[in-house]
Each structure stands twice: as C-alpha cells, then as structure tokens.
Amino acid sequence: xxxGDGTRHLLASLTxxxxxLLGVLGFTFLLNQYDMALLGLALPQIQAxxxxxxxEVGPLLGTIRLxxxxxxxxxxxxxxxxxxxxxxxxxxxxxxxxxxxxxxxxPAAFLACQLGARACIAAEEVIxxxxxxxxxxxxxxxxxxxxxxxxxxxxxxxxxxxFGFVESLPFGWRALYALGAVPLLVLGWIRRSLxxxxxxxxxxxxxxxxxxxxxxxxxxxxRLAALLTAILGFGFVSATALSFVSKTLQELHGYAPHExxxxxxxxxxxxxxxxxxSGVLSDRFGRRRVLGASLAAMGLGVLVFYxxxxxxxxxAWTFMMMGFMACDVLFGALGTxxxxxxxxxxxxxxxxxxxxxxxxLGLWAExxxxxxxGSHALAITWLALGAVPIPLLALLALPETAExxxxxxSPPATPKGETP
Length: 420
Hints:
Elements: H1 2-12, H2 16-41, H3 43-50, H4 57-65, H5 71-81, H6 83-101, H7 107-135, H8 141-163, H9 173-178, H10 183-193, H11 198-202, H12 211-218, H13 221-243, H14 245-251, H15 257-271, H16 274-285, H17 287-305, H18 310-337, H19 344-373, H20 376-387, H21 389-394, H22 406-409
C-alpha cells in the first residue's frame, strides 16, 4: 500500500503534459533498446548465421558501436532545425536499417545495417533526453530521465522474451530483427503527440550549421573535458562487459537460450528499480554522488560476474546491471543539463560519440587482450580493473546539477572560457 502511494506521489509531481511527453519518448526508447539488446543476446546465433570468426567478434561489435558517432551530425541538425523534426527522421531511419538487418547475408552487410541502426538509435536517445531536460520541471527532471530508462528496460525485457524462442522461430534470429518494422505502425501517433521544445523555439539561432559545435568547444571547456573523460571510461568498461554476457553464459556456463532469457527477465526485473531510483535519489542527494556510487557498483559487478559461477554469478549480474542502468540515466542527465540550450543537443551528440568511442576501444582492446588472457572473461576482468577508476576521478571536476534550473546551471556565454 505504501509503495503504491509512493509511486503515485512521484508521478503526481509530473504534469499531464509531462506525462504525455514521457509516454511518447519512452515508446521510442523501448523500440531502440529492443534492437540494442538483440545483438548481445543472439550473438552466438548471429555469428553462425553470417559466418563470423571468433577473433572477429570483438572488432565487429566495436565497429558497430561507432555508428553512434553519426548521432553528432544529427544532433547538430537538431540544434538548428528542431528536436521534433529530427526525431521523426531518425525513427524512419531506424525502421529501415533494423528491418534490413534481418536480411543481411554476411558480416559486411550486417555491419552496414547495424551501423545505420546505431546512428539513428543514438540520435533518438540524444533528442529524447534533451526534450526531457527542456520540458520537464527541475523538481522532477531526474525522475523523467528515469522513466525514459524504464521504457528502455522494457525493450530489453521484450528482446529477452523473444530470444527465448530463437531456436523455434522461422528464420531464427532474423525473425527477431524483422520486428523492427513496428515503428511505422505508430509513426502517425508520435507525430500528433509530439511538439517542439519551448526552450528551443525561444532560443535565437545564429551562424552556420556548425555553430553549435564551435560554441560547445569554446564554452565551459573544463566541464566538457571532465564529462567526456568520465563517459569514455564508462563506455570502455560497460560495452565490453555487457556484450559478452550472453556468450559467456551459453558457452562457459552451459546456459540454454531460454535460461539466458530467464536470467535476463528475472534479474533484469530486480535491476529495473535502478532507473527511477537513480533519478529520484539524484534529485535529492545530487547527480555526482549517486553516479559515483553507481560506477563503483557496476565495476564490482563486472569483476565478480566474470570470475565466478553458480548463484553468485546471478547476483553479480544483477548488481552489474543495476550499476549500469543508474549510470546510463545519470550520464544522460549530466550530458544535457551542463550546457546551454543553443548547443544542448550537440553536447548530447558529442557525449554519445565519446560513449560509442569508449565502447569501441574497449571491444577492440578485448580482441587484443583475448590472445594473451586465453578467455573473454579474463580479458574483460583485466580491462575493467584498469578503466573503472577513470570516470570516478573525472566526476570530481563536474558541478552539481540536481534540482537547479537549466539557465542557472549553464547560463548562455560567449565562447571565451568558463562562465563563473
């Protein structure tokens, strides 16, 4: 009874307009994360289906991560042409690329389709998070970020459920990707329900299409450098660790696909609380403090998961996912809150680019270290030990953003250095 009352109290802090916005954006998050989850879940089946060698797994996954780099170009357009227009464009692009992935005959075609899908997914997430930052009040902005992430987790859960049937579906893993055509069925609803950000509409725009990027590099350089350093380290560890979970469970611990699904759904349901909880706690105790604790939890979970078996492995995976989910929410929050409206989407695009680059570096490094370590589990453990302290140290240089209006956190400034 008390838990239900608490949930209603949290939702009551959102206006009806804010709840409608979160519903529309959350649906796009759900579809995106469904696609993201498939690659990790069905990696062994995809390997066999497209003829991918064992030594090529890490490099392929790392290269796919770089598709998110194109989100920077789309984010620049979002700071010039508008959030709504670019969101609709990326939904169409995601639908096309994900559907074509189901038809990929070889590694090259699979790579090309997934690069396009990742670019659109990253851009959608950038724009959605920016819209939440600009349209949800400061009192509940952290909660808004957490609600978006909950929708994403549901997408992961749906992918896990679908993966449990991969061996009985016609065309196997390809059938799972064919479901990427679903967004076309709801595009009209999204168009009618989504309006442009009021902060964007009131922001004067000047210069060329590259002006938001030039402004970003000139204004608040210290906080930009600290944030990107933290995100680089986070991406390096999280992408590598999460990409090999299903493969490790199936090949090292003998899990069947339906058992992997059961773990993802059961443990993931427990970890799901991290999404709203991290947002709410960060609204109360501060983004930096909660993010630091979440990074430490994720790192510990990675180290234990890849070095143990049995029940402890399940607990470690849940712990790792709770840390990852919280970090995902809070890095998204900081990436939008720390910068002015005129280049907020661009800042989020740069964040996504660096996150993808960190993930790619981690996966490429895993491919190199694998030869020395002799196993994926040991290679990931070595990499995590070296990389986890980096984002923890970088957080110390960032200002706090919780429960502050965006204009107070990052007032507009000329690109000549930090504003006091």
